[in-house]
Structures are given as C-alpha cells and as structure tokens.
Amino acid sequence: MRVIPERGALGAPYWDALREHRIVVQECTACAALQHPPLPRCSHCLCSDLGWREMRPEGTVYTYAVVHQATHVAFLGEVPYAVGMIEIAEGVRLVAGLQSELSRLRIGMPVRAVFRDVSAVVTLLDFAPLPAAGPDLI
Questions:
Q1: Where exactly are the structural domains of the chain?
Q2: Cross-sheet strand order for the sheet of 23-28
C-alpha cells in the first residue's frame, strides 16, 4: 500500500512541475515574495495575483526529524525514516523526505532534489546529500 497525496486545484502547478522533475513555488506579482505551500493570497502583502517560479533543485537541511513509529499502515516497512525542512537556494523552505543514512544527517548539509515517480500521475519530492568533494587531484 502506498499513500498518494491528494492533488487540489490550488497546488496543481506544483504537482505538474514535480511530474516533470522540476520544483516551482508561488511568486507574488505585486511584491515578488516566494511562498510554499501554495495559498490563495500572498502571505507577505495579501495580493491575490500569484504566479509560479521555477527553483533550483538544491538547498540545505534547515531541520529534520527521524520518524520511528509508523503513523499509517503504509509506512510500517519504512520506519525509521527522515523528513526534513529544506531551505532551497532561493530561500523558500520545503518539507520533503530525506534519502540518506540516518547517522549522516546534519543540519546545514547540502542536498539535491530527488524525484520519485510513485504513480502514473504523482511524483514526490525527496532530497539526498550532495556527494562530498574529494581531495584535489594534482
């Protein structure tokens, strides 16, 4: 069994972009503020004229939690797993799964988006650590 998020009209552009392995967030046309999750009005100036802007698929771990107890039967075989708040390069924070050995997780760790196609119409967003830079070769 897999839990598939419901796709509402307000967030449809976000889910469509994930399906194309891209990340988009709302951008206010009046004040240029970025926001996620999608809302009907800008959380900064309350303007209702919002568009969508593509984000770079990289960021850092702002915070994370390791889940040890399944909250739904679909997650019984998944625990323990990590969920993080990722601050992407443009400054917006997204909640996503973390694909990493739990002992390696660190706040401030650089990560890159991983797109998981879980059905014919749904793609989920996870993040994984960027490979550590090795020693310079001379």
A1: 10-55, 56-129
A2: 34-35, 23-28, 50-55
Neighbours of 95 (CB within 10 A): 14
Q: Residue length, the chain?
A: 138
For residue 95, the SS3 value is strand
- Please, are residues 111 and 127 in contact by the beta-carbon 8 Å criterion? yes
Place of tokens 């998981």: 116
Q: What is the CATH number of domain 56-129?
A: 2.40.50.840
Kindly report whether the peptide bond that precedes residue 37 is cis, defined as omega within 30 degrees of 0: yes
Q: pTM of the full predicted structure?
A: 0.87
Residue-wise burial string across 51-79, b where 16 or more C-beta atoms lie within 10 A, e elsewhere: eeeebebbbbbeebeeeeeeeeeeeeeee
CA–CA distances in Å: residue 58 to residues 5, 42, 75, 114, 115: 23, 24, 26, 10, 12
Output the six-digit token pair for 36: 């996620």
Q: Give the residue from 1, 26, 5 showing the smallest Cα distance to 96.
A: 5
**Which tens digit of pLDDT belongs to each residue from 71-93?**
888 778 889 999 999 999 999 99
